[in-house]
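## retry 2 of 3
previous attempt timed out at serialization; input unchanged, resubmitting
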Amino acid sequence: MVGSLSEREAKDMIVEAVESKQGCKATELTAIPEIVLGVGDNLVPYIYELVEEGRLVEVEYTVPSVPYRLKSFLLPQGTEITNDIQRYAASAKDRNADQGEPPGQ
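## retry succeeded, writing output
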């Protein structure tokens, strides 16, 4: 048992919280009393396990003002990640198709 919950119950509670928020930073989970009381000190290890199990998606990133600090954001299972380059390329391909031009023109 961990806190007042079994490991499975604790992990399910974390997943449900991330899903209900449609994604969040792990620190946001520490503001939910039920998670703090139920999960205890195992929040971070459980998040790592949930990512490894594929039940959560973690996006890691740095920002220009603090490039030495790795940040992360948790998203629900099944979330698709794209970046600006991928989105721009898809948009350009769609525009070219609408104009009757071959892709890449």
